[in-house]
Structures are given as structure tokens and as C-alpha cells.
């Protein structure tokens, strides 16, 4: 199975949990991890920002990545959310098999 991690920043833990719950319950991803209280510094609309955010990391099959990104965008509060797909190049084969078994196949209406 070709797997990916999808890294997402959200305005807070509540938004990360809502998005994560939707992704897991719809079987688009096997699981998510949420890290609260991340500090982010960046420029937005020519203004320096120093914010607290939450990070959501979703584990899924590469074949579902585009659909996962679209689902996140549909439920995200940001105008231009950080959603980045990172390939999984290796790891515990049993865990990677578990991811494959949890994610609904493309075309499955779960």
C-alpha cells in the first residue's frame, strides 16, 4: 500500500477534532493525531502573524489523498488552509497494512 500523511493546521483543537472525526468516520483516513497549542509565525495579507493553532496529521492511502484534501477544505475555516500531503516511504509493515485495512477503497460510499 502506498500511504500518505496529511499535515493540516487548524485554528484550534475543536476544529481539528471536528475535521478528524469526519475523516475517520467516513473511512477516508485510518486515524488522525492532534497536537494542540502549536505556535505558528507567518505573514498573511502583509501582516506578521504569531498565532496558536492545532495540528492534525491524518494517515491514509495515497489513492484517497485528493479526496481527503477536498474534504478538509470543505470543513476548514481558513481561507487558505495549510494542507500538505507527505508520502510514507517506509515503516512498520503491520501498521501500514492496518492503515490499508481501515481506509475504504476508492469508490466505496462509506
Task: Give your account of this protein's structure.
The chain has 110 residues and is an alpha+beta fold. It has one domain (3-102): Alpha-Beta Plaits (2-Layer Sandwich). The chain contains three helices and four strands. A hairpin with a 2-residue loop joins strand 2 and strand 3.
Note the topology.
Elements: E1 3-10, H1 13-25, E2 31-44, E3 47-61, H2 65-75, E4 83-87, H3 93-102
Antiparallel strand pairs: 1-3, 1-4, 2-3
What would a concise description of this structure say?
The protein is built from 3 helices and 4 strands. It is of the alpha+beta class and 110 residues long.
Distance between the termini: 20 Å
Give the number of helices.
3
Report the major sheet. 4 strands, antiparallel
Give the H and E element order. Answer: EHEEHEH
The radius of gyration is: 14 Å
Key structural traits:
elongated; alpha+beta; 4 strands; Alpha-Beta Plaits; 4-stranded antiparallel beta sheet; 3 helices
Amino acid at each position: 500500500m502506498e500511504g500518505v500523511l496529511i499535515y493540516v493546521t487548524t485554528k484550534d483543537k475543536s476544529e481539528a477534532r471536528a475535521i478528524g472525526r469526519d475523516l475517520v468516520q467516513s473511512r477516508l483516513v485510518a486515524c488522525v493525531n492532534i497536537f494542540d497549542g502549536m505556535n505558528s509565525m507567518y505573514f498573511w495579507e502583509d501582516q506578521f502573524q504569531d498565532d496558536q493553532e492545532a495540528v492534525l496529521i491524518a494517515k491514509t492511502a495515497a489513492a484517497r489523498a485528493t479526496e481527503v484534501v477536498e474534504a478538509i477544505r470543505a470543513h476548514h475555516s481558513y481561507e487558505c488552509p495549510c494542507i500538505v500531503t507527505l508520502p510514507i516511504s517506509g515503516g512498520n509493515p503491520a501498521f501500514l497494512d492496518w492503515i490499508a485495512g481501515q481506509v475504504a477503497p476508492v469508490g466505496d460510499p462509506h
